[in-house]
From TrEMBL:
UniProt organism field: Solimonas terrae
PROSITE patterns: COMPLEX1_51K_1 (PS00644), COMPLEX1_51K_2 (PS00645)
Ranges where the NADH-ubiquinone oxidoreductase 51kDa subunit iron-sulphur binding domain occurs: 336-381
GO molecular function: 4 iron, 4 sulfur cluster binding; FMN binding; metal ion binding; NAD binding; NADH dehydrogenase (ubiquinone) activity; oxidoreductase activity; quinone binding
Protein name: NADH-quinone oxidoreductase subunit F
The EC number(s) this enzyme carries: 7.1.1.-
Subunit structure and binding partners: Composed of 13 different subunits. Subunits NuoCD, E, F, and G constitute the peripheral sector of the complex.
Length: 447
């Protein structure tokens, strides 16, 4: 299959070359920047927005919010003033590694996506907020930006259109909370990465108080192909597997034979992803449970493997598709240990802004460690279940703690016997957890 044909079925990864990504000349020879030229010469910003909205592209960062709808919330017109486009490339969700593949393997497609999306919302500046550890991605993106700038594709009066726009890479300091869009904006401004109260939403008052759109890397990578090929083509890529449009980057991590990332029609079943593309479990291991899209999603069981991996189907099953990268847990792993490891990560990455998250997550870790070591108290399971409610949606300032509770609540539901096995009949209840229950600290709801 030629590259031209491949781009029609795998628009995200057809150009990816991790060893030698395309430079500007090679990218343009493969049809690169045609979407930008088409947008500037044939389409208004409203036309681009409409095309993306009609495509049924849903955000690939985890929440699944329709991209075109998000863009439509931005004020437009000559009096709208300065606006910003921010790419959320702070990929720190455990078990997720798809955006790195795109940025390192096809940096010019990232740059073109930033320019076309910036045109669609009338932005003056774009920022790629990149995870600091992605050093290779930063080098390649900066090189691609410099090439585009030198060719007149960035800067003043782009391609004679009268539109001025530039784009920059901003490397973060390595905090998971920066994946939350308002914390990311605070960090971009040089502030502490704490989430902001909403409303106002970033589309109205974001970076430096101006209208701002934050999109994920994978979401943006779809924009140039949609502009070139149209909304109907994009919807057809799902091959009828989902009402959502496009392909999706799915992945597998854990004790599978072939861990990695695969571009497939959105709505492909989890079984096909794991068994056909991931090769199934390694010899000597059986699937016990799996996370559908990163650490902040609920565990599902082997009997859920035939579900379509799209946002609505996985939500109906009691979890979230999230980033769409499966993390498999094998039958030799203890679920208490698995969950304790995840909760340690979430506790460490809390920004500390609100009490339930700052104090509740470390308490969950203490109880899980006690259960893991066989010295848990009889009340610990009830306390952990209580934490899943008190740190749930609406109880904390942002979605960090509710996300942390998802794997815990599902593990308690499906694998309760493994938690009960860690209870010691002679264990004394830890003072700090006892005080927690008596004082009602975690009952305080964030205003």
């Amino acid at each position: 299959m030629s590259l031209e044909q491949d781009l029609l079925v795998k628009p995200l990864t057809a150009r990816v070359n991790l060893a030698a990504p395309q430079d500007l000349r090679t990218y343009e020879a493969s049809g690169g920047y045609l979407a930008l030229r088409k947008a500037l010469k044939e389409l208004s910003p409203a036309d681009v927005q409409s095309r993306v909205k009609d495509s049924n592209l849903r955000g690939r960062g985890g929440a699944g919010f329709p991209t075109g709808v998000k863009w439509g919330l931005v004020p437009m017109g000559p009096d709208a003033g300065a606006k910003y486009l921010v790419c959320n490339a702070d990929e720190m969700e455990p078990g997720t590694f798809k955006d790195r593949l795109l940025m390192e393997g096809a940096p010019h497609q990232m740059v073109e996506a930033m320019i076309v999306a910036g045109y669609a919302i009338g932005a003056c500046t774009g920022y790629i907020f990149l995870r600091g550890e992605y050093v290779v991605a930063a080098e390649r993106l900066n090189k691609a930006l410099a090439e585009a700038r030198a060719a007149g594709l960035l800067g003043q009066n782009i391609l004679g259109s009268g539109w001025n726009y530039d784009c920059f890479v901003h490397t973060g300091a390595g905090r998971y909370i920066c994946g939350e869009e308002t914390a990311l904006i605070n960090s971009l401004e040089g502030r502490r990465a704490n989430p902001r109260a909403k409303p106002p939403f970033p589309q109205i008052a974001g970076a430096w108080g101006r209208p701002t759109v934050v999109n994920n890397v994978e979401s943006l990578f779809n924009i140039p192909p949609i502009v070139i090929n149209g909304a109907d083509w994009f919807k057809g890529l799902s091959q009828g597997k989902s009402k959502d449009g496009g392909t999706k980057l799915y992945g597998v991590s854990g004790r599978a034979r072939r861990t990695g990332v695969y571009e497939l029609p959105i709505g492909t079943s989890a079984r096909e992803i794991l068994e056909d593309h991931g090769g199934g479990m390694k010899d000597g291991y059986r699937l016990k449970a799996w996370l559908p899209g990163g650490a902040s999603t609920d565990f599902l069981l082997p009997e859920h493997l035939d579900l379509a991996m799209d946002f609505d189907t996985i939500a109906k099953a009691g979890s979230r598709m999230g980033t769409g990268l499966l993390t498999v847990v094998d039958d030799k792993q203890n679920m208490v240990s698995v969950v304790r490891n995840l909760e340690e990560f979430f506790a460490r990455e809390s920004c500390g802004w609100c009490t339930p998250c700052r104090d509740g997550l470390p308490w969950s870790v203490k109880m899980l460690m006690a259960l893991e070591q066989g010295r848990g108290h009889a009340d610990d399971l009830a306390e952990l279940e209580r934490l899943t409610r008190l740190l749930g949606p609406g109880r904390t300032f942002c979605a960090h703690a509710p996300g942390a509770m998802e794997p815990l609540q599902s593990a308690l539901k499906f694998f309760r016997a493994e938690f009960e096995a860690g209870v010691s009949p002679t264990a004394a209840k830890a003072d700090d957890v006892h005080d927690l229950a008596q004082t009602g600290v975690l009952d305080a709801k964030v205003a």
